[in-house]
Write a structure and sequence with these properties.
With 407 residues, the chain is of the alpha/beta class. It contains 17 helices and 13 strands. A 7-stranded parallel sheet has the order 3-2-1-4-5-6-7.
């Protein structure tokens, strides 16, 4: 990466060259993993202005094939350097969550991801580097911050369980120390910092970092649209994953609400047979089935523990289905209360509101507004903002600064 490589033409008739850009991605474990969906949406949206490649410290053959078929070159080690991932794979326990955790450990303790990617990219010339990770602290033009550090998630989990001391609390303090070192390297290595939501932006600004803009996470919404409802018995739809507040879903089921769940990113210890005792759990579903599930639901429920942005509310709204979720973090920036869904502030309020809605509401009043709201998060809109930051000569000449000395 070098500064100022993209220059204006010397003559009016001189041919123009699209600048090259590489996106640094988190480890990609499968073709339908959230990281692959995210990075493919970013790459497609940016390809109007740049020749885009993708680099990652880990990418399965399946993930590479998916991105190659979309027309993007993928730079990733041929060898799996993640030994915990290899061991879990043999046991059938590999997941995005465990792979990301190992990536965090490799970088925060030893800087291995940074060295691995640097070797991969040293033979290539890219005009711009966009780093979308918290696990590779290498030089970039833009560090696109996707979420808060790991210790924030761990501390939130302990608070929910009522634990404020003991071995787990001490572990959080150790994680926080390593987080601070890694985040400082990420910030120092990036010329510009942007955030995936205002919630993420405010967190880092409160910790003394200058964040130039909010550029929301990208997801390809072109296939999400309202479909005719097929007369199936009423249900509410729920995503099941590592950030899902399962106890809330169980309480809804106990109230007589039919909960249909989907998701293929279960964390170790979350057993499908236990879920199916209370929830009609479909597991991993393909795109067309997911659109049909969204469209057929009375409403989507999204009780989460931590969510910097949240694809599920936006996808649901794109299908004309309102969303019940918490009025905090990322979902509070996408769902408009009492227009495209409902925002509540506690588990008890969530369960009461869901029970009230289950007994009837005017769904049509929400549908059109939900579709319109989702359209505001189209990848093209966010990509134009990112391209403008990259190509603006004034912005390129400005350096970041610490907002205060508390970081």
């Amino acid at each position: 990466m070098t500064e100022g490589r993209v220059e204006g033409p010397s003559t009016v008739n001189a041919p123009t060259r699209r600048p090259s850009l590489v996106i640094i991605a988190e480890p990609m474990v499968s073709s339908d993993a959230v990281q692959v969906k995210f990075v493919s949406a970013v790459a497609r949206a940016l390809s109007e202005s740049f020749n885009v490649s993708i680099a990652s410290a880990y990418a399965t053959r399946e993930a590479r094939k998916q991105l190659n078929e979309l027309g993007f070159s993928v730079l990733a080690p041929a060898q799996d350097h993640f030994w915990v991932n290899r061991w879990l794979k043999r046991l059938g326990l590999r997941s995005e969550a465990t792979l990301w955790t190992e990536a965090w450990l490799r970088e925060s303790l030893f800087g291995r991801n940074r060295r691995l990617l640097s070797r991969l990219l040293e033979e290539r010339h890219f005009d711009f580097v966009v780093n979308t990770t918290n696990t590779v602290a290498m030089p970039s033009d833009v560090w696109w911050i996707q979420g808060p550090p790991l210790h924030v998630t761990l501390e939130s989990m302990l608070q929910r369980e009522g634990r404020s001391s003991g071995p787990l609390w001490l572990l959080c303090q150790v994680v926080r120390w390593f987080d601070d070192q890694t985040i400082d390297r990420l910030y120092s290595s990036g010329r510009i910092a942007v955030a995936a939501s205002n919630y993420v932006r405010s967190f880092y600004e409160q910790n003394g970092m200058e964040v130039r803009a909010t550029i929301y996470n990208l997801s390809d919404l072109s296939g999400f649209r309202p479909l005719p409802r097929d007369g199936e018995p009423p249900y509410v739809l729920a995503y099941i994953g590592k950030e899902t507040e399962l106890e809330t879903l169980y309480q809804l089921a106990n109230r007589g609400i039919r909960v249909v769940g989907f998701g293929g990113k279960l964390v170790p210890g979350m057993r499908p047979d236990q879920l199916r005792a209370a929830i009609d759990f479909k597991g991993r579903v393909d795109h067309d089935d997911l659109v049909a599930l969204y469209s057929g639901a009375e409403f989507t429920v999204f009780p989460f523990t931590n969510e910097p942005f949240g694809y599920v509310p936006v996808e649901s709204m794109a299908c004309g289905t309102p969303v019940l979720t918490y009025g905090k973090e990322g979902p509070a920036e996408t769902v408009v209360n009492d227009e495209t869904g409902w925002l509540v502030h506690s588990r008890d309020e969530f369960v009461r509101k869901a029970s009230s809605l289950w007994h009837g509401f005017d769904r049509l009043r929400f549908s059109a507004k939900a579709v319109w709201r989702a359209s505001e998060f189209k990848p093209e809109i966010q990509a134009r903002m990112l391209a403008s930051l990259l190509l603006d000569p004034v912005g390129r000449s400005e350096s970041k600064k610490r907002v205060n000395s508390s970081a």
